[in-house]
Amino acid sequence: MLDEFTDSDMAGDVDSRKSTSGSKHIDVRYHWIRNVLDSKLLQLEKVEGPKSPEEMLTIFQRVLEKSAHVLVAARLDAEERRTNVRLREEQDAAYRVALEADQARERQRKEEQERLAREAAEAERKQKEEEEARERAAHEAAEKEAALARMREEKALSLAAEPERFWCGSQLESARERGSKSLYDYVDLLGCLEVESYSLVSNFPRVVHGPEKLSMSLKEAGLHPQASLLVEFNS
């Protein structure tokens, strides 16, 4: 860009007057023509003395022609700088995209690792719970079996010595005068049943020998001198 300027403090001033012949002149003292390109200041021409507009145009034209290569070089340099700036911006944008993609992959990898770790911990917890449940079940079964064995032993010791034949061919001993509870004790001692709740029932006529008759003797319950009883599971 060409620029003309005056500095009243250092380079004098510019005065526009008409000559005696009526033509207009520009009185230029220490007048400069400058080239300003991207903050670079170059002196292209120094003009002094009165000049007509035509002379000034001629000077400007000459300066332009003489400085054409400078202007072209400056324009090319500016274009190159703009191109470099654009390339850097494009490279920065591509770098940001690649960085975001890498960060996304890293987040996904960490999330996958955390998910696998949670699943492994959950599987380990479930396995431990199952093992503990099996151990508890085995312990409870052993305790139940031991309690059943103690109960049978106690009932066997409490029963009197009189043979009674049961449906499975076993012979146990009873006492006529004992209550019908002794019949339940005999059934428990057989170990043939895998249920905890059952009732002894006579068929003809149907009579359930439940808890209300446990204190009766066999004779009072109508089971002496003989009777057939069925085992009925309670739901």
From TrEMBL:
> What highest taxon heads this organism's lineage?
Eukaryota
Q: Does the keyword Lyase apply?
A: no
Q: Mind listing the UniProt keywords for this protein, alphabetically?
A: Ubl conjugation pathway
From the Swiss-Prot or TrEMBL record, give the protein name: UBX domain-containing protein
Q: What are the BP-aspect GO terms?
A: ERAD pathway
Native source organism of the sequence = Camellia sinensis (Tea plant)
Which ranges carry the UBX domain? 181-232
Secreted recorded as keyword? no
Give a single Pfam family match.
UBX
What segment(s) does the record annotate as region Disordered?
A: 1-23, 103-144
Task: Cite the record's Acidic residues compositional bias ranges.
Answer: 1-12
Record's compositionally biased regions (Basic and acidic residues): 14-23
Which Gene3D superfamilies does its entry note?
Answer: Phosphatidylinositol 3-kinase Catalytic Subunit, Chain A, domain 1
Q: Which GO-annotated molecular functions does the record name? A: ubiquitin binding
- Among the entry's GO cellular component annotations, what is one? endoplasmic reticulum
